[in-house]
Specification:
The complex is a heterodimer of chains A (about 120) and B (about 350). Chain A is mostly helical and about 120 residues long. Chain A has helices at about 5-20, 25-30, 35-45, 50-60, 65-70, 80-85, 90-100, 105. Helix content of chain A is about 65%, strand content about 0%. The longest helix of chain B is centred in the C-terminal third of the chain and has 8 residues, at about 250-260. The chains are: A mainly alpha (about 120), B alpha+beta (about 350). The interface between A and B is medium-sized, with 15 and 26 residues.
Amino acid sequence: MSTAFGPYIREKREALKKQDKRFSLRKVAQRVGIEPSYLSKVERGLPAPLSEEKIRAISVDLGENADLLLALSGKVSADVQEIIRKRPELFTEIIRQMEDLPDNAVLRLVREVRDGKW
Amino acid sequence: MIELKNDHLVFSFPEIHPEASLEIEFQRTLRIPDDGEDYPLPPGLGNFSIRHVDDHAGCLPQTWLERGGVMLPMYQSEAMWINFSSRQIPGHGAQYPFAVKIAAGKINAVTGAPWTDALRADPQDYLVVPDQPWLDGYCVEKGFIRQFVAMPLGDGYSPEAQITGSEETGGLQVSVYPMKRKAFEKRYPKIDEREYPQMMQETLMFSIQSCESPMALGMGGRMRQKIYEDEFDFSDWDRDTSSRCFVHLANSNTWRAITGKTPPTLPPTAKDYSRRGLPWFEYYSENRAVSGSGVLEGLDSVNTLGKKKRKKPLPENDSANPEKIVKILKKKTPYQVREW
């Protein structure tokens, strides 16, 4: 587990807890389905692996982007892995080419609905 | 930029504001009776599936490919409504505003005028989202619309046929204009959101040949729905920036031939729905409504035109008695659908 993940979710959870007590460590752990002591270890960046499913559950609970949390934890989501496995040469090359592109240029690569003549 | 995500059309304008994003979905619903009565808003019964036309190029008419866009399946005489959702912008306590033009058969659904790409202020020919949470049909009178009802293109029931004398376009056309960023930031300055936690909360008081069977949208029964006046300045809209999309309507019975997927069955009738005590909806907002279009008010509904043609275009049209009405106060939450 990457060390960036734990402090990041702790910061987000603590910020939410200031407005809503339901975001205490114990209650978040309960909703996500892990022991509070385990979540505490995760938040402190100690060795405590979490499955993709649990990371997704945390992202939903904290209202964070699941892909971002997976990346912070050193994981790539299973569906993205599957996409790359289908055409590994093409997609790894595309990702390498896009490494230094600004966000707005990357966004242009998404599939757009094509407009025509009407 | 328009993307198709989970059967939603997502209009994004990252060049204007990173969060300027509007989602549009097309909701299945029951057809309200076209019996001279005014009805409340019917429910949302799930969204229509949407596909890129380019994904089925091999079995679509050339005109569809030339127009581009997306397609969705509708049964003959099935109704629909359009749901708009704009994202809440963090730190501003507001949803990003958009001006949205909607036409069917290239006839503007608010004014009855032929399609133009430009926005027009007088008469207002667009909706303002998020003030306008949804659109169920053609605006025929102040505070009243006639429901969008699918009829075969070429049968002459749509406003397109009645106004232009021909019916060759059909489908739905959507064009979206974002508010200028400066105007947005001036109207919705940064706030400390902890002071406004409830700001946007709303209250609930309670075969391939068949590919050549496109649909048009006729005018069904009357419904109480306001088209809200634009309360912003017309100059707030970025009229140099817009995205537009042609939404083709495929006959449901041929959708399977095109996509290999079976569309859902027809919704219940309005009469059966009401008899089971299921809810209808009313939306309350103090915003002013635009005057109805004299052009559209003077047109015949599908049922009236059917009588003139001595045909029965609607398979059933029994009156309904909506008893359970859920009142929704301004404003609906983003992505909220009329459901129970």
